[in-house]
Design goal:
single chain, alpha+beta, SH3 type barrels, five-stranded antiparallel β-sheet, 3 helices, about 20% strand, FYB2 protein, SH3-like_dom_sf, FYB1/2-like, hSH3
Length: about 120
């Protein structure tokens, strides 16, 4: 122990103003926020609400949005209009409503709504 104490360099303790110390603590608290996922989920829910509002206005859909079935896209399809939902092969979709003809209203994982032809879907 005597040899270790002999070679140890002692650093003087610097005094920090109380205001600076408080600022540093608050910055550390912000950086160590454990619940960072809440921000992204809040942003996602805002985006979903915006998409739902746009869907209700565009499609004049005033009923409750209920998922009738789940389907996957058989192939990738580009949308020709804003009302059509672009698809990628294997994408999971929620079928919201069956419309007259061969189209159904679907919702994708991002919360976007649109018409999809039944021919492009695989039901389980």
């Amino acid at each position: 122990r005597g040899k270790d104490d002999k070679y140890r360099v002692r650093m003087p303790k610097l005094r920090v103003a109380k205001e600076c110390k408080d600022k540093r603590k608050s910055i550390d608290d912000v950086e160590r926020n454990i619940f960072k996922f809440k921000k992204s989920s809040e942003e996602k829910s805002k985006k979903m609400d915006k998409e739902e509002k746009f869907f209700r206005e565009t499609f004049m859909y005033h009923k409750e949005i209920r998922v009738l079935a789940r389907a996957s896209a058989a192939r990738s399809v580009r949308s020709r209009r804003r009302a059509d939902l672009p698809l990628t092969a294997g994408e999971q979709l929620d079928v919201i409503d069956a419309v007259q003809g061969h189209a159904v209203i679907c919702r994708n994982a991002q919360g976007r709504y649109g018409y999809v032809l039944v021919e492009h879907l695989n039901f389980r």
